[in-house]
């Protein structure tokens, strides 16, 4: 299985899942602050650590420093453990935890506040959703909150679909995934020139740049640049809906163009062919099970 263009968009969902998993319902909280958060998870085993974590939820305050947990995935279960304390998550089949096989985060920070909702930043990392491992540079994610009458934030994921922005300066594409991107960027059709010989040599784009995914009131735009023989710029737009009752996100792809050339069907086809466990394609809709 190879990576699809939609992998970029799913990064937003993965980050939202980590912050929403512990806060599925409405609650009063002040702030959550995590500094120097790192993850190294590969082939079903890994570790997660942070330099500092402080939070206050209701009347409870928590403060941890230099904390590390071990991660182990086996038989559709994933275990988080530290010395004599552990948390077992069962029935992960078809979820985000089941799909991702490599995840590395470098020097990440997470700040959550009722006024801001969520700010996430990291120096870089890498991930694998199949056969290829993709690495990326600095990533930033910011989501604004919408309050109800009590000033609560319903969940940390919901605001990202009201006003959210994800930015990644570059995403390196490995050799296994170049062919998938070549199918999504049919440069010969776009330019009206036969580039078949050049495509055989370089296979596909090796880096995506200036990736920006923005959501405002459940409407999203995705833009990125790449060079595949010629300079290309992809723009996508449509509707993004979070359905907490079904624990899923639905992305409707209304437009996907490189210049004036539509690549909507090609992008959706490559996503479907990728066979990502928690991602399904129905018509022009992409369903991401969390």
Helical content band: 10-25%
Please report the distance between the alpha carbons of the first and last residues: 20 Å
Q: Strand-and-helix sequence, N→C? A: HEEEEEHEEEEEEHHHEEEEEHEE
Specify the number of helices: 6
Largest sheet: 6 strands, antiparallel, barrel
Strand segment count = 18
Strand order of the largest sheet: 6-7-10-11-9-8
Instruction: Bin the strand percentage.
Output: over 45%
Categorize the overall geometry.
globular
Task: Assign the structural class, choosing from mainly alpha, mainly beta, alpha/beta, alpha+beta, or little secondary structure.
Answer: alpha+beta
Average per-residue pLDDT, rounded, comes to: 82
Q: Which segments are poorly predicted (pLDDT under 50) over 5 or more consecutive residues?
A: 1-27, 148-154
Question: How big is the Rg?
Answer: 19 Å
Number of domains: 1
Task: Please give a structural write-up.
- This protein has one domain (7-38, 94-289).
- It is α+β, with helices and mostly antiparallel strands.
- The protein has helices spanning 7-20, 96-99, 175-184, 187-191, 196-202, 264-274; strands at 29-42, 45-57, 60-74, 77-82, 85-89, 102-112, 118-122, 124-128, 133-136, 139-143, 163-172, 207-216, 219-228, 230-243, 248-258, 261-262, 279-282, 285-289.
- β1 and β2 form a beta hairpin.
- The protein has six helices and 18 strands.
- The relative contact order is 0.16.
- It has a six-stranded antiparallel beta barrel with strand order 6-7-10-11-9-8.
- The radius of gyration is 19 Å and the shape is globular.
């Amino acid at each position: 299985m190879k990576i699809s263009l939609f992998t970029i968009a799913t990064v937003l969902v993965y980050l939202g899942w980590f912050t929403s998993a512990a806060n599925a319902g409405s609650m009063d909280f002040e702030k959550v602050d995590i500094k120097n958060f790192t993850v190294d998870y590969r082939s079903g085993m890994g570790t997660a650590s942070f330099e500092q974590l402080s939070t206050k939820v209701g009347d409870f305050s928590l403060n941890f420093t230099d904390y590390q947990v071990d991660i182990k995935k086996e038989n559709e279960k994933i275990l988080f453990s530290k010395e004599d304390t552990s948390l077992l998550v069962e029935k992960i089949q078809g979820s985000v935890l089941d799909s991702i096989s490599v995840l590395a985060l470098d020097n990440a920070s997470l700040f959550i506040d009722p006024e801001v909702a969520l700010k996430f930043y990291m120096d870089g990392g890498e991930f694998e959703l199949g056969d290829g491992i993709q690495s990326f540079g600095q990533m930033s994610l910011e989501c604004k909150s919408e309050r109800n009458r009590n000033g609560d934030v319903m969940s940390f994921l919901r605001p990202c679909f009201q006003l959210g922005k994800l930015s990644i300066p570059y995403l390196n594409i490995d050799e296994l995934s170049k062919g998938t991107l070549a199918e999504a960027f049919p440069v010969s059709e776009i330019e009206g020139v036969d580039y078949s010989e050049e495509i055989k040599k370089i296979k596909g784009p090796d880096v995506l740049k200036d990736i920006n995914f923005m959501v405002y009131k459940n409407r999203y735009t995705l833009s990125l640049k790449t060079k595949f023989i010629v300079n290309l710029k992809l723009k996508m737009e449509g509707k993004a809906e979070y359905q907490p009752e079904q624990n899923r996100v639905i992305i409707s792809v209304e437009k996907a163009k490189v210049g004036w050339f539509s690549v909507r069907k090609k992008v959706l086809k490559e996503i479907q062919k990728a066979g990502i466990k928690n991602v399904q394609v129905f018509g022009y809709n992409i369903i991401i099970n969390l």
